[in-house]
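forwarding from the other thread:

> can someone predict this with magnesium ion?

sure thing
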Amino acid sequence: MLTLTREDVRLGCRAADWRAALAQAAEELVRAGRVSAEYGEGLLAREAQSSTYLGNGIAIPHGTPESRCYVRSTGVRVLQFPEGVKWHDGSQVNLLVTIAAQSDEHLDILRQLTRVLDREGVAETLARATNPEDVLATLTHLPVSAKLDAETLCLGVPARDHLELAMAAASRLRHAGCVESSFVAAIAGQQPLPLGQGLWLVFAATGVKTPALALATPEKRFQDAAGDVVGVFCLAAHGDAHRVLLERLDGMLARGDGNTLDGLPAEQILSRLAGESARAETARVRLLNPHGLHARPARELVLVARQQTAQVYVRLLEGSGEAVSASSLTRILGLGARRGQTLVFSAEGEGAAQAVAAMVEAVRGGLGEPVTPLDERREREREEVTARVVETAPVVPPVADEPMTAVPAAPGVAIAPAYVLRLPEFRYAERAEDAARERERLGRALVGAQQQLEALVQRTVGGEVSKILSIHAEMLQDPDLRDAAHESIGEGASAEAGWWRAIDTAARAQESLADRLLAERAADLRDVGRRVLGLLCGVEMPTPPEQPYVLVADDVGPSDVARLDTAKVRGLVTARGGATSHSAILARALGIAAVAGAGERVLALTSGVELIVDGELGRVVAAPSPVRRQRTEKRIEEQEARQRAAHGRRHEEARTLDGHRVEVAANLGNTAHAADAVERGAEAIGLLRTEFVFMGHPQLPDLETQIAEYREAFDALGGRPLVARTLDVGGDKPLPYWPVGQEDNPFLGLRGIRLTLTRPEVLETQLRALLMAAGTRPLRIMFPMVKDIEEFRAGKAIFDRVQAEVKAADVQLGVMIEVPSCALLAPTLAKEADFFSIGTNDLTQYTLAIDRGHPQLSAQSDAIHPAVLRLIQLTVEAAHAEGRWVGVCGELGSDPQAVPVLVGLGVDELSVSSRRVPLVKARIRELSLAQAREMAALALRQPTSAAVREALEAF
Ligand code: PEP
Ligand code: MG
């Protein structure tokens, strides 16, 4: 959105020539802190490509894509030259609207300006304005949008007269949210006006929220007492904003196209109303230009249109915009067409077919720019995401002291100034003469990157972090990557270009496997790639401030998190990602308070603004009020005190005030961490994710290897129980040497027990290894992703056979409750399974139908949802009726608000990340069972997860 303030406007400027004017504009942007000084070169380079003169005395200088790296934040500076400046293309310029944009935001700015340009006398008004407000009023006078689209069409209504159609159209406007009931009442008292060609019009200005035009047509054209009826238009009038709708209606009638509407589908009706004649030749083409139809390609398009003998019109297929003259640069820019959108060209009369064909050809040819084909699936995803973001969440910077919700990703509360991380841009020559020299440069950079990574591995605490960094180091040594880069260098590429091509190709191949874990590997690859590029280009990676800070980033890469100095980073906020994203997992491992998926708004924050991050409630507050700040500081102090106290009692049992015991165990992915879990007070391993044991090996680990790994955990546990989940791969967890075919919905596909049952010998070996490693020590085995008793029995048959041979002394066989069907059928399962462990991560995903890692939706995927709680209640009741125990091993178990609810629901064991064990124990000790039951009952009565959290907070 172009939001100009009076500070953005400079009146009465003078310049000897256009270069001096441009230099002033650049200077203004620098002074405003929008760009660094180098951006001026980018402005000049852009003018060298073609003039940015728009018309009506206005030019819109902006940098080349290469100069975007000098933009600090998007903004505009307006300079008025009342005496005019002669531009290099001969035009007279009175107003420079200079744009600093980091991506394609300038298209929106352009679109808004072009609307202004069309107005009469605008050039003089702007040139003569004597106060900034007049300029602002002229530039930012945005037309109110008027609605006319598929939603306002009501076709094939079984009506008997035109009055019924009028009411149908009015009601449609009410349903579309454009008008209130009073509008419909006003229409009810009207006699429709005849427009001719079988069309009628009713209109009112009462109760109008958005100006709009609806059309209702009958099933079949008919005659009533008033005459011929093809359809009735209903206009919601507001100010003069509906004028454009009437003009379009008028245009259609003037062309005599009203008669042709009978029986047409919505798309064609809209095209008639958009100004496309029924007799027009039309042709469509996808726009492939990387930055959409910006000024340069638009100018090319206009030139082609002007060469045609027929007048050509163009509109966007998406939306319901008007067809505009393809010979008008401002009109074309006003479309704001982006890559991937479809342009519809139309022309009438002689030469029409050739004209639209020429336009299509020109667009396909790239309009003077190199274009690449669309990867339909990825572009669609990108478009959908963009559309959602654009339509439903315009990016507005966070408001001071207003809490924003996000996904709680790592517990803790922090308060510190924000440090907004922006990845550096690398500028390098694509080609180089001396291949030997380039290979040598690449070799040196690879060695440098390797040394950096090794130093980081040494510095990092936490197993997960160093594991990921070690993977990065391994990636660097991949001979395939190096060979691919050398090959490109041999073909004339520079070291930078060759290396990045190799990285990008490998990453794309990885991404195309359509699997989230593999997609994360692609992010790892790019992360490693950037490290090497940084060394090659001599670009410093962004350096964080010396003082403590909260890191704000789009979606930080694993090594960005690993680079964090935990002494300085108080918290982490990411715009994208969910609680299961790599960065969230790492933040948890490092003990940093974190929220994920906070939305793009957080990226609009300025570094240095104070931020509160609440990793427990999933909240971010920018520039908190002194009261909120004090409250938070107090909370942090209390939390630290609580942590110290909890740590001191970590080895004691967790009992409620009235003596009810709840076992607190740890979740592990790595058997080597079992000793650490015990040290932190874990009474058992409540979930061993054995797939990580498998993932740590290049091929299926054999019996001996598995026994050795499981034994390590048993040895560390000193007689405490180990709950091992059998191999849970598929879905978001691929195993490279056990490929699952391409699936449209991997989360609903071959995963968990379903997958292992396809290779029973693998399951058998794993069960044997577990039983043999246990010997006389307590072992609990559970199957993941079971949907009903049938799958449990299939797994149990294999278990029974192996156990009959091994005869381990203390074994139970259970089921993970992760699929709603299993919770609903818990009474049948409880008869045969020894225990249940509720995997709330998956249970929530399947209950709420939200992908657990979805970048936009996962914020709504809160496991404390009453529907999930009811399934937990059913599970516990069924288990206890048969004398079985129930654990919770999903993330909900470590949620401080959820702990009392789970205890109140009767859960016997909570298995949480090792770090959380002391705190979860402490939370249990604060409660009485009666109080916990009350809280559970309260939560179950709520309609939404937000209501649950509110009710619990108020308890
Ligand atoms: C769960 O789904 O809650 C669970 C514990 O398993 P995972 O997170 O490993 O899928
Ligand atoms: Mg699961």
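Residues 340 and 375 are 10 Å apart (CA to CA). thats all i got for now
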